[in-house]
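Summary of Year 1 activities. Much of the first year was spent building the evaluation harness for sequence design. The harness presents a backbone, in tokenized form, and records the residue chosen at every position. We chose the following record to illustrate the format because it has been used consistently in internal testing since the harness was completed.
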């Protein structure tokens, strides 16, 4: 089983790439943070990221989704990973929780994800959504924190440059269809 992480700045087009990869038959796992935010907002909580348990809720959902996807396909693509959650905690100036530390230790020890991470570069703008309330300038800071987190945990970043969706999907598909290195 080869599990790749697709990550990058908010609004870079990760979800669009993921949808296209699913259409091509790849196993895909959607981002947990967006789901945690959407569930909370559906319950009337406007800014769930201000809650102390927010990071741990993301970690729990990421682990659940990774576990549930464990038997589907020979190649899977994950929209973000616990390393992204580490970057989020750093960005939000939150302490790295025991749950997050334990999950990063688990994914490292069990070699859950490929060491090459597909890093989707920004498109030069960031469209706000109900879950993504970040300016383009803030997204660039967050992008840098993601890079630092992945490198700190020993991952190699493979740039997926800005461009049209079809080209980006083709680039990702060619990377993940190659035999593992």
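For this record, the design step produced the sequence shown next.
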């Amino acid at each position: 089983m080869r599990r790749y992480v697709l990550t990058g700045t908010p609004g870079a087009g990760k979800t669009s790439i993921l949808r296209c990869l699913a259409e091509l038959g790849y196993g895909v796992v959607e981002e947990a943070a967006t789901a945690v935010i959407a569930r909370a907002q559906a319950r009337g909580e406007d800014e769930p990221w201000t809650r102390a348990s927010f990071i741990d809720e993301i970690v729990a959902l990421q682990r659940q989704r990774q576990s549930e996807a464990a038997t589907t396909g020979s190649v899977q693509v994950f929209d973000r990973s616990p390393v992204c959650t580490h970057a989020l905690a750093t960005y939000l100036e939150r302490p790295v929780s025991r749950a997050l530390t334990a999950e990063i230790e688990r994914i490292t020890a069990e070699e859950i994800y490929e060491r090459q991470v597909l890093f989707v570069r920004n498109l030069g703008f960031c469209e706000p959504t109900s879950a993504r309330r970040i300016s383009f300038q803030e997204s660039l800071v967050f992008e840098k924190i993601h890079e630092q987190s992945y490198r700190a945990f020993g991952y190699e970043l493979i740039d997926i440059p800005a461009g049209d969706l079809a080209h980006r999907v083709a680039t990702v598909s060619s990377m993940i269809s190659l035999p593992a290195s």
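The helical segments are 14-23, 32-42, 54-68, 82-91, 98-109, 136-152, 165-176. Quantitative recovery figures across the full test set are reported in Table 2.
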